[in-house]
Amino acid sequence: MTEFIINNKTLILVISAALLFALETFRPLFESLPEKRIRHIFRNVMYSVFNFLIFGFGYGLALIQISSLSEQLGLGLFYNLFWPSWLETILILLVLDLALYIWHVANHKIAFLWKFHQVHHSDLIVDFSSASRFHIGELTMSAIIRLILLVLLGISLWQIAIFELIVILCAQFNHSNMRLPLWFEPLLRWFMVTPEMHHIHHSDKPRETDSNYCTTISLWDRLFGTFFWRSDIKNINIGLKQYPKQESVTIWRIITMPFRKKKRH
Ligand SMILES: [Zn+2]
User: Fold this and answer.
1) Taking the CA of residue 108 as centre, how many other CA atoms within 13 Å lie in the half-sphere pointing to its CB?
2) What is the pTM of this model?
3) Residue 8, in any domain of the structure
4) Most CB atoms within 10 A, among 131, 158, 161, 247?
5) 123 CA distance to ligand 1 centroid (A)?
6) In a domain, 25, yes or no
7) What is the percent of the chain where pLDDT is above 70?
């Protein structure tokens, strides 16, 4: 089962994107958008293809090499604990998810990291395609942290692959411009990050951007006091005040964004 999921990762992500696209069409959270949807999705898909060509192959190779070396040496924590596989996997997924939360907070608090992370926040429409709009610099730094954790904790290649698939699926879901049923959203929000919750994170108000950092489960925001809620989601202005127009976030401009001088807020 695990092997089937990993081997068909791209197909699973395409099916998920198609489902979310349909739901965004029939149950939009934001109805009036500053740009045509197809054009916005096309730009984000082109940008993620560019990222994959530059970053994806190298990261994939590094992951395979480092994980097989780590397994041979058997130095990582879980290679020496001999705990049941299911318990080990649950703990590893939780630790990786907590690390992702801390990394996201750091991206907002440390000026150097924000230069790269602002690329993600400069999107003026947040939909499922925004889940893949990250600067290659941010992707590289987060990949290095994950590889270090892989060696220290003794994480297997398939455990990392499952975690990454869960993260991308959840990111597609919580970025989607889809309105969940009113009775269901508050319930789901207790356990998972909902589109409503994550759109608050993409608000142009600093108080709101600096909240709701979780990607999969909403536990860490609740535990560390970074959860924020407002019920009038439709009144949120999405994006960054310093990049208010579509012309300021073309593909070339988002690639070069970290190297240009602009004030944060
Ligand atoms: Zn963020």
Assistant:
1) 18
2) 0.90
3) no
4) 131
5) 11
6) no
7) 95
